[in-house]
Design brief:
52% of the residues lie in helices and 11% in strands. Strands 2-3-4-1-5 form a five-stranded parallel β-sheet, with helices on both faces. A two-stranded parallel sheet has the order 6-7. Helix 10 packs across helix 11 and helix 11 runs parallel beside helix 13.
Length: 290
């Protein structure tokens, strides 16, 4: 990488959204998903030991799937490649396989291939990847918001370990907001910002478990608020409400959330639970269900 490429990369990083700049770089910086990453848990041990087999991260947006892949890229001794299934096709898969074979032959290093939005690969593309996962040419890490048991071919699923990431709790999101306010290199640590407690709680609650949504709202609040006479940028509850107005509802008419919600509504009706029935019906109506 030459001087101009270094300057371009630095410029891109500085101009990146807060949510991208604040991505954890190590497991110690990662917030949430303790059921997978608490000390002693299988996934954490595998990452620390650099002994990963093929796996698929499955969960709602903003829960850390891509971030975990980047942490693995930063820590592994393996050759690491990354593609996005939205943009890549079979030629890109073939290029990755050739690169993996070359590294294995010349440097005796295995290759980890990260496929973001892996559910966007069609069956033909997944079939093209399968034999190379099967024979160990690449170790697959897939990330998807969709249920892999429905969206990824059975042969790939059977050769991968599925790790389900959960929506982050409000306490986790508040901790992430605090980190962004303190971090002088990647966040707002060099600015004099006062995020009121009620405003912080509001951002964390309305983000509905999505760290990206919470950080995007904080960034918008900071960018659109002027400092007071004392030079302090104060974010009140009113500003927070304007920055993230509507609670995000996890609902996909063609996905698991749609059918899970309908199932919960029907079960609450059968169980003669009016409060639960009203809750699930309200969720469907708010999400735009006909």
């Amino acid at each position: 990488m030459d001087l101009f490429e270094n300057a371009l990369e630095h410029s891109i990083q500085e101009g990146a959204p807060l949510a991208d700049r604040m991505r954890p770089r190590t497991l110690d910086e990662f917030v949430g998903q303790n059921h997978l990453l608490a000390p002693g848990r299988l996934l954490r041990r595998a990452i620390q030991a650099d002994q990963l087999s093929s796996l698929i991260f499955f969960g709602p947006p903003g829960t850390g799937k891509t971030t975990l892949a980047r942490i693995i890229a930063n820590t592994t001794r393996s050759h690491f490649l990354s593609i996005n299934a939205v943009l890549a096709g079979i030629p890109a898969i073939r290029e990755c396989i050739e690169s993996a074979r070359r590294f294995l032959s010349e440097q005796q290093r295995r290759t980890i291939l990260f496929v973001d939005e892996v559910h966007r690969f069609n069956k033909t593309q997944q079939d093209a990847l399968l034999p190379h996962v099967e024979n160990g040419t690449v170790v697959l890490i897939g990330a998807t918001t969709e249920n892999p048991y429905f969206e990824v071919i059975k042969a790939l699923v059977s050769r991968s370990r599925i790790f389900q990431l959960r929506s982050l709790g409000s306490e986790d999101l508040e901790a992430i907001l605090e980190m962004a306010l303190r971090d002088e290199d990647r966040g707002f640590g060099k600015m004099h910002i006062l995020l009121e407690e009620e405003a912080k709680k509001h951002l964390a609650q309305v983000a509905s478990g999505d760290a990206r949504a919470a950080l995007n709202a904080l960034e918008l609040a900071v960018q659109t608020t002027e400092t007071n006479e004392e030079g302090i940028l104060q974010i009140s509850l009113e500003i927070a409400e304007e920055s993230i107005q509507q609670r995000a509802v996890l609902y996909d008419k063609d996905g698991d959330a749609h059918f899970d919600t309908i199932s919960a509504f029907i079960k609450s009706m059968r169980g003669s639970d009016p409060d639960a029935a009203l809750y699930w019906m309200a969720k469907m109506v708010q999400a735009g269900e006909d």
